[in-house]
Design brief:
Nucleoside_diP_kinase_AS; two-stranded antiparallel sheet; 10 helices; 13% strand; 292 residues; alpha+beta; Nucleoside diphosphate kinase; Alpha-Beta Plaits; kinase; elongated; nucleotide-binding; 50% helix; Nucleoside_diP_kinase
């Protein structure tokens, strides 16, 4: 089967096997399990996890013990293969066969248990990312600026909620508040009170309260201005392709979504739609979105 080199922190573990190994798949199983552990170990580097952390230390120790046991089994298998070839013995004793066959199974179980323990510990460590408590409207002019966005009844009915959320997430913005609400007429009138003198105000409020809407609070650098640009112009026909309205809407009265147009509007709307507050949490990938 050749020469296998497993490199861990500049330490090389070499497993030498003979041509007879093809007759004994147990050693191959050990190699596969060892490689499985190594791949998981490499995830620590890819996910930028400190290898001196308790989780990493546990995993490295398990990996080391597993590699030693695998090397021992591989050597034993090779010796048995050579011995059988030299003396023409076709079968070993049943006890020896059981020992060789059961070892990889036990080691495989160890690998799976170890991976489960590490995965659970990793999730627990990532789940404890907290941020300082902020007002619901965040801190305008910083990376923690916040805005209110809503998917209107037409966007909900057309199944566009997921795509709208995905666009903001892929841009790098953070969702800190999300819920579905069926507005009353009074809620619609309060939300659009700055348009109360407009002739279309009654029909606007009637439509806004005609079905469920999706209320969202998004956080990030310049999110109020950038959010409006991502939504597109209020008049869909004037919106550029690539914007939400430019891609999904035609009529002014069915323009899919709403976004705060100023810090003052964002504060008013977020306090109205999220009186219970939003979630102050930190994204572990923010260092890949912002320089500082």
């Amino acid at each position: 089967m050749g020469l296998y080199n497993i490199i861990l922190n500049q330490t090389t573990i070499t497993l030498r096997e003979t041509q007879y190994d093809i007759q004994y798949p147990q050693s191959a199983t050990c190699i596969i399990c060892l490689l499985f552990l190594q791949v998981n170990l490499q995830l620590f580097t890819l996910r930028r996890i400190d290898q001196s952390s308790p989780v990493a230390v546990i995993y490295i120790n398990i990996f080391t013990m597993f590699s030693v046991a695998t090397r021992s089994i591989a050597s034993t298998t090779a010796r048995r293969a050579a011995s059988r070839s030299s003396y023409g013995i076709r079968a070993a004793s049943s006890a020896a066969a059981r020992n060789v066959a059961s070892a990889p199974i036990a080691l495989t179980a160890l690998a799976l248990v170890a991976s489960t323990v590490v995965a659970t510990a990793s999730v627990d460590s990532r789940a404890t990312v907290h941020c300082e408590k902020l007002p619901v409207y965040g801190v305008p002019g910083t990376n923690r600026e916040r805005t209110f966005l809503a998917v209107k009844p037409d966007g909900v009915q057309r199944g566009l909620v997921g795509d709208i959320i995905a666009r903001f997430e892929k841009r790098g913005y953070k969702l800190v508040g999300l819920k579905m609400v069926w507005p009353t007429m009074e809620m619609a009138q309060t939300h659009y009170k700055d348009l109360s003198k407009k002739p279309f105000f009654p029909s606007l409020c009637k439509f806004f309260s005609s079905g469920p809407i999706i209320c969202m609070c998004w956080e990030g650098k310049d999110i109020i201005k950038q959010g409006r640009q991502m939504l597109g112009e209020t008049q869909p026909l004037a919106s550029k392709p690539g914007s939400i309205r430019g891609d999904y809407s035609i009529d002014l009265g069915r323009n899919i979504c709403h976004g705060s147009d100023s810090p003052e509007a964002a504060a008013h709307e977020l306090e109205m739609w999220f009186p219970e507050g939003v979630n102050d949490w930190g994204k572990t990938v923010d260092s890949w979105v912002y320089e500082s």
